[in-house]
Amino acid sequence: MSFRIDLIKAFREYLKLELSLSDNSVEAYVHDIMLFNQFLEMNEVGLNFEQVTHKQIEQFLDYLFGLGLSASSQTRILSGIRSFFRFMQEESLMENNPARLITNPETSRKLPEVLTYDEIKKMLDTIDLSEPIGQRNKTMIELLYACGLRVSELINLKVNQIYPKDGFLRIRGKGDKERLVPVGKSTLKSIRIYTDEIRSLQGVGIANKDLLFLNRNGKKISRHLVFKIVKQTAEKAGITKNVSPHTFRHSFATHLLEGGADLIAVQQMLGHASVSTTEIYTHLDREYLRDTIMSFHPRSKA
Fold this sequence. Notes:
The protein has 302 residues and is mostly helical.
């Protein structure tokens, strides 16, 4: 691993000194190869860069596809990987560039839409907060995007799973597995307004008293209603993309990774099953996850 890190440092100098790239371009290319390096650590422990073949790069692109990154985002990351292995060739560290013959990901490959941050903000700004359900709907969309939640996780979220002082949600995901997800101040504020000013005034049956989100009748909100709210909000904001609750989950992953976040941290926050058998990746420090959100999630900078 230390050998791979040393090569990445040398790659940074090559980009800066020999190719005279801008600081932003250098950091983007280095981040691309760091993501690939993390993927290798999870899957190909002990494999050196000079041993990489097109197989590992294609597996990495498939992994990014699984996270929901668009074809254009994958293509940009592949560009950084191509540059790195070109550097390896020029340094006589390997004979062939394993990324050279890999074609760019197909834009036609079916993938959920990814919204830009401006599009998400436009949706949030479109919601009429003078209506009680407006604050509820805004809070739901905030949570879908700010925490990358699945719609099932959203509708089953309980009040006692929110830890505002610590800045975390305790999410129960697929396979009944729990994970901690950091949540930013603006989203916590939205939750507080909804619970204090809207939800607290509703008549709530005992069976639903622990649930955060309720319908007009004080009962558990349905998946169908969440889909309907998201679709209608997108249409009202003039967004023509095919938007669903899952769109925000993919946007969450895409914006974090493109912003410079750690691959493994994003995987853990999404609740994806780890592809690694190495215990070091099974649990990341809470502060590290929170720092990842605060540093790289657009909503935390709003």
